[in-house]
Please model this.
Amino acid sequence: MTNNPWTPIADADAIDEGQAIEVVVGDLILAVFRNNGELFAMDGMCAHQGGPIAQGKVEGGCVTCPWHGWQYELATGIQTINRQPLMKTFDVREQGGKIEVRIA
Ligand code: FES
Model:
């Protein structure tokens, strides 16, 4: 449990179902997704060579990097081949018409 504050990053309607946006929070680039009605936030730069994860294809609860195809679970940041948590994930919620993230 963390006491870090929630940071508003976008209006709630900025991310349609199955879509993602890239946002900058402090010195971080995040990819924020809406998949099956749920929001997910993770590192915006792929752990492989920094590809833009927010531009990846989302399917089956995973995102596939558009550059070389590394795939990560949205909920955990685990890379699906080597099962390592290569991508950091962040708390994200919808509150008062805004999407907010919490940076640990
Ligand atoms: S940069 Fe993402 S798979 Fe290579």
Summary: The chain has one domain: 6-102. The two ends are 9 Å apart (CA to CA). Residues 72 and 79 are 4 Å apart (CA to CA). The chain has no helices and nine strands.
